[in-house]
Amino acid sequence: MKKSNHNFGENVIIYEGAKVDESCEIGDFSIIYPNAIIKENCLIGTSCIIGKPPLVGRNQMSLNDLKTNTIIESDTIISDQVIIYTGVKIGSNSYFADKSFVRENVHIDNDVIIGTAVTISFNASIGAKTKIMTGTNIGGNMIIGKECFIGAHVCSVNDNKPNLKRSREKQNSAVIEDGVFVGSNTTILPNLKISKNITVASGSVITKSLVDSNSIYMGVPAKKIKK
After folding, report:
1. How does residue 172 score in pLDDT terms, banded at 50, 70 and 90?
2. Strands 216-218 and 223-224, sheet pairing
3. Distance CA 92, CA 165 (A)
């Protein structure tokens, strides 16, 4: 561990190899792992963990493509009790609310807002200016485009075969294109696409691809509403 003159709270741990810009603030009891890079004017809250390496054991699939650096670009705010694993890249001017949880190799673009207790699983990608609200689960390998809105307590999954062990590369969540609005408490099943500028009503269950851009879908299963 290294000592620093940065603006840190009490009992902060910064491991040797981490790079934290002098303009950053880090709250009490936070841990910054090696290979974490935190750029200008970032605010890290209390009890955060940045750059955490995953444990790989008998119940965890092999992580052959695990990246090492965790990068947080400038002017980003990480609130209290946030955990961010290794290999994550977070763009500038983004915001993570309390207790959000980001697994390894996730890529998040600029100006993204992540709500309280959101989980973002491995290898997911989130485009610029997207908002993801409280309690939502973003499945592994999910792709979300720019300027999307994902409401509270949306559940997306990347694997619905509980008795079949598959490599992470074969656990595919949905692809959500730019400008999509997904209402709260919606469920999104694996291996499907939601086309540009679609609106999905709250409480829907998406079981197959929604292909008509600029349309509204709703129901269980979600179906297009006639204009």
Report:
1. confident
2. antiparallel
3. 36
Q: How far apart are CA 31 and CA 141, in angstroms?
A: 26
Is the preceding peptide bond at 34 cis, omega within 30 degrees of 0?
no
Residue for token digits 């491995």?
122
Instruction: Please check whether residue 224 is in contact with residue 207, taking contact to mean a CB–CB distance below 8 angstroms.
Output: no
Kindly indicate the confidence band of residue 4, based on its pLDDT and cuts at 50, 70 and 90: very low
Q: Tell me, what amino acid is at 220?
A: V
Alpha-carbon span 45 to 212, nearest angstrom? 42
Phi and psi at residue 98, to the nearest 5°: -55, 140
Residue 55, C-beta contacts closer than 8 angstroms, at least 6 positions apart: none
In our burial notation (b when 16+ CB lie closer than 10 A, e otherwise), range 22-60 reads eebebbebbbbbbbbbbbeebbbbbbbbbbbbeeeeeee
What token pair was written down for 217? 């879908």
Burial 166-194 (b: 16+ CB within 10 A, else e): eebeebbbbbbbbbbbbbbbbbbbbbbeb
Q: What is the pLDDT of residues 101-153, one digit of tens each?
A: 999 999 999 999 999 999 999 999 999 999 999 999 999 999 999 999 999 99
Against a cut of 0.85, is the pTM above it? yes
